[in-house]
Amino acid sequence: METRHVPLILVSHLVNIRYLTGFTGSAGMALMGLRQGILWVDPRYTLQAREQAEGWEVIEEKKGILKGVAAWLRKEGIRDVAIEASSLTFAQFECLRSETGNTLSMKPAGDLIEDLRVVKDRGEIEAIRGAGKVTAEAFSELLPYIRPGVVERDLATEIEYRMRKKGAEGAAFESIVASGPRSAYPHARPSSKALQESELVIFDLGAILAGYAADMTRTVFLGEPNRRVRELYSAVLKAQSGAIRSVENGAAAGEVDSSARRILAKHRLARYFTHSTGHGVGLEIHERPRLGKGETTCLRSGSVVTVEPGVYLEGFGGVRIEDTVLVGPQGPEVLTPASKECWVIS
């Protein structure tokens, strides 16, 4: 904050509030200065905030959190504050301005907090490692249930049930189960379609543990795969393995993406890879950095990213393989250790 000449920042993004204060409620605003931290909550969360936000002044606001913030700024004579432009709505912006008598100057803080969140500390990494273990175990236990006639939506429900039984707070996102031609949709939602013999099935799942998420995708085939299916799976697996090897401290994010695409290009499949190779993961399922074309951001030890190349053939199906990977001091560490070899279910 000193380097960027930001004396005060008003934090409205709940994920960033949790990151800074530890408060996990669904409503609140925080004001962070060089020598002070204030958290406003409504009466539902007063006790929780006082327990969780250690070291922060907690103010209970009964007449609206935003009005309480504005009243405090006006009382203290604050004229300049940085805001989170990506989360503060225009209506909130206008309310702050009017409630402070149109004397408050509000400027975007940029990615000040997101920059901090890119590198995880030991506790954060352990939480993600735990979430990855739960995710992998839930999928491994699901394998005996994957058979022709089972409905996609039922398998998705089973995944989330098993993750919760293993201690997860819940699913990091709506679990994806997409079979046959639907597996060519990268973000297909589970449907009432029943699995059939001789088709690909994509499973994309992730657990939340202590607030931190994991993300994993596995693809299976029901029956005996022909040569075309085996070549598709082998190419994607090679692309993912190559990209994971590129996940090193100091490597450009775009180079991880390029590693996957170069391998798929050798198999003449690069044009069927329609999304970026990965993204950061932590308190949110999609965080910085993005592992995409032309991304020049350098990976840093302690960052956690996904590596998820895929190939999608319209009318036929798709293959995607994804792991959550730690940029470790000794190289990449896969945090979602489910097998990628047991993909043929006969």
Label the structural class. alpha+beta
CATH topology of the largest domain: Creatine Amidinohydrolase
CATH superfamily of the largest domain: Creatinase/methionine aminopeptidase superfamily
What pattern of helices and strands is seen along the backbone?
A: EHEEHEHEHEHHHEEEEEEHHEEEEEEEE
Q: Mean of the pLDDT scores? A: 96
- Helix content range: 25-40%
Major β-sheet annotation:
6 strands, mixed
Q: For this structure, what is the CATH class of the largest domain? A: Alpha Beta
How many strands appear in the DSSP assignment? 20
Distance between the termini: 58 Å
Q: Tally the helices.
A: 9
**Count of folded domains:** 2
CATH architecture of the largest domain: Alpha-Beta Complex
The gyration radius over C-alpha positions equals: 23 Å
Query: What characteristic shape results from the CA principal axes?
Result: elongated
Describe the structure.
The protein is α+β, with helices and mostly antiparallel strands. The protein folds into two domains: 8-116, Creatinase/prolidase N-terminal domain (Creatine Amidinohydrolase, Chain A, domain 1); 122-345, Alpha-Beta Complex (Creatine Amidinohydrolase), CATH 3.90.230. 32% of the residues lie in helices and 24% in strands. It is built from nine helices and 20 strands. The chain has helices at residues 14-21, 46-52, 65-76, 90-99, 112-117, 122-142, 152-165, 227-245, 253-266; strands at residues 8-11, 29-33, 37-41, 57-60, 80-83, 105-108, 170-171, 176-179, 200-205, 207-209, 212-213, 216-222, 278-280, 287-291, 304-307, 310-313, 317-320, 323-328, 331-334, 344-345. The strands form six sheets. Strands 4-3-2-1-5-6 form a six-stranded mixed sheet, with helices on both faces. A four-stranded mixed sheet has the order 8-9-12-20, with helices on one face. A three-stranded antiparallel sheet has the order 7-10-11. β3, α2 and β4 form a beta-alpha-beta unit. α3 (65-76) crosses α4 and α6 packs across α7. It is elongated. The termini are far apart.
